[in-house]
Amino acid sequence: MKKLISLTLVVVMVLGCISLVACNGGGEDGATTATTTPPANGGTTPAEGENGVTTTPPEEEPPPTPPEPGEWTITRWTGPTEFRVLTFTVSPFILITGYSYQYPGFWSGNLYTDHGSCRTAGPEYGEAIIDNQFTDELRIPRGEGLYWDLVFQGEFDETGTHASGTWEASLEGSPYAEGTWEASAP
Fold this sequence. Notes:
Blueprint: H1 2-22, E1 70-77, E2 85-90, E3 95-108, E4 111-119, E5 127-128, E6 133-143, E7 146-156, E8 162-171, E9 174-184
Antiparallel strand pairs: 1-2, 1-9, 2-3, 3-4, 3-5, 6-7, 7-8, 8-9
């Protein structure tokens, strides 16, 4: 029985030492105390970093809603464009996968051309929409062996139901026209 009491006493003493070390000595009487100095910025609360106090960072805004999948039709153009209609397709994977267009017809050889479609010039699977923004380059046949090179930039609003941006066109490497555009969800 004496051995059991001695062993219990030793265990209690070891645990007491461990708790004392864990509390950094615990002050003179074994109790921990906290001291606060007035803030250096003259305010009533310590500035960030004073006395180990840090402010809570502001809550991050939720990410914007991704754009609605489907075929988006540009409803408003500015600038001297010859397009009647330009649409772009947004996939459920937040990619622009293709474009369709219509413009006033003209003869190209024996073929009357007034519409067509093209894939995005981006990666094979489509142009990524990152943070609800995109930039794409298109090469659209103009007829008679000529091409429009179109740089198409845009941004979707936070609801994912409206988009707007800029466009710049060149014809065989020479600047041709530029402007802005707007589109709504399908």
